[in-house]
Amino acid sequence: MTRLIDEDDDAYRWLEDLDGPDAAGWVRDRNAETMAALTGGDRFAALRAEIREVLDADDRVPYPSWRGDHLYYNFWIDAAHPRGIWRRTTGDEYRRPEPHWDVLLDVDALAAQEGENWIWQGATVLRPGHDRCLVSLSRGGSDATVVREFDLVRRAFVADGFTLDEAKSDVTWVDADHILVATDFGPGSLTTSGYPRTVRRWRRGTPLPSAEVVFAGQADDVSAYASHDPTPGFERTFVGRRLDFFRSESYLLTPAGERVRIDVPSDAHWDAHREWLVIGLRSPWTVDGVAGVDGGGGVTFPAGALLAAPFDAFLAGARELTTLFTPDERTALSYHAWTRGHLILATLADVRSRLEVLTPSAGHWRREPLAGVPEFEHTRLVDTDPDVGDAYLLASEGFRQPATLRLGQVGGPVETLKRAPAFFDAARLTERQHFATSADGTRVPYFLVGDPDAAGGPTLLTGYGGFEVPELPHYSGIVGRGWLARGGSYVVANIRGGGEYGPAWHRAALRENRPRAYEDFAAVAADLVARGITTPARLGMEGGSNGGLLAGVMLTRYPELFGAVVAHVPLLDMRRYHKLLAGASWMAEYGDPDDPADWSYLREYSPYHNVDGDRAYPPTLLVTSTRDDRVHPGHARKMAARLRERGHEVAYYENVEGGHGAAANNAQRAFVWALTLEFLWRHLGGPA
């Protein structure tokens, strides 16, 4: 038996040197090998061209966002604008088949003018007023950004305006002359996770170093943060510290500078809207003195519940809590959003979307279905505009159905605004939901899309299973064109660790229980074979980020189940992940490798430490980005080197830019996906 790697026996740590000459040379050699092997044929060229056509299509839905000024904002990328344009239009214009757009910022023109590889990362608009914004731009797609003040009237950056150097910054407007800033202020100002530790109130025209510190967290926190609500009559500033990925400590910052604790469980998520406080629970919460309970005794609210309380009364100590949602074994709260006077709840029932609207009235909350939601498609809330009124935007789609965008008014009409084009022929395809049985007896749902008559064919299985993030039905022109239309089946597994069934589904695969997620995924793979949908030799899997860790575990723990494995921007070295870039912020999810008790279970599944040269592995493709400043490319580099050393077939591609998405523009996205699908077809698409 080949000796597995010891935690301190890491001969490839030199590949963590991001731009070191030896590491860079190794990357160039691996890229050249992969491109020579996979990109030369007609099929690759056709795949890349078809994917690029999907990404650049002029008739895609230009999904809008609202910012309180009755206008529809959109960021748009196409062949003529590979870096994108930020634009806006009126509601009447948006309804037209080809709206007239007011272009606010052309990122391609800006990059050419300044000689920078700018990638758009969003904008924060001043409310009220809407005449200024803070634009975030990254170099090459990294999480770290440069922040610059932009005049929306003159369409120009503000000379001597608010400007921040490249950092993982968090900014919010207070008023036209003040912003709250969390950024890199120099030595001691960042947490061990690499995020800001302090928040300052910065007044226009003054030096940033002299800005007043209004809040400071601890070095071992994930980050400090701040937000400001400018709603007239309800102006509030909040500050806080993220203790780990799931827990935080939050305060109302009074005009006098006093901090008043938002006394909710540290792992709860909450928001304040006008007179209301809404609290979502990740764990059970026992509360004494709840209004309406005989004797004011304690009441325990379950994990996954959503509660509401009058904001001012809650901060004053009263506990007038109303339960807005209670989960059950099949149903979980996905998210919620406010309009001006209503609360929209999005729930999942066996991973099928449900939306309803709640209205506070005379001491109770009226509940009714949200209008405009199709019964058999997945529907998501695109946006609301609580500054303005009770309108909402909905997008409904399915694996085979392109999206339809609708505009509704709570209690009023619903109209169809846009329909997305179909990028592939779905006439012969079906969408089915099955349940696999995991090793401990848990029923694990998964969606299967494909030709029901194509038994035993090439099948692509994907999943995530982490951070309480659900994998939901969606329409993908890339998967449709590049996989389904060519005869493949596509499967999305809803494994534990995600948010498909709420906090309990996530907690079931947390820390030492992480192997439950991997057992779930393996159960789905086995179920696909048992149903005759595919065979192990024709089953491939793909995952990214935490899903890349999933791919690494499938490769090293369950290699007999797959014919090919693809990992995008993967997390693979669980001994050193917390020392690389943002890795320390994920210890609440995985554990602390420096704690012997935690390392004892991390060691058992860490892909990098479990590469076995005496066991047959399926061919593997690893894709990452040099500019990924979230998951260090060293994970993929070292894994590829270890696999090569142990005699396994591995292809490696590292994009020089692109950040955590491994691509900075549509040309790069088309290349990465064509590379992925070509690799899978090579190894899975042969004769049955």
TrEMBL record:
It comes from Micromonospora harpali. PANTHER family: PROLYL ENDOPEPTIDASE. This is Prolyl oligopeptidase family protein. Residues 9-225 form the Peptidase S9A N-terminal domain. Residues 484-685 form the Peptidase S9 prolyl oligopeptidase catalytic domain. Gene3D superfamilies: alpha/beta hydrolase (3.40.50.1820), Prolyl oligopeptidase, N-terminal domain (2.130.10.120). Keywords: Hydrolase, Protease, Serine protease. It comes from the Bacteria. Pfam families: Peptidase_S9 (PF00326), Peptidase_S9_N (PF02897).
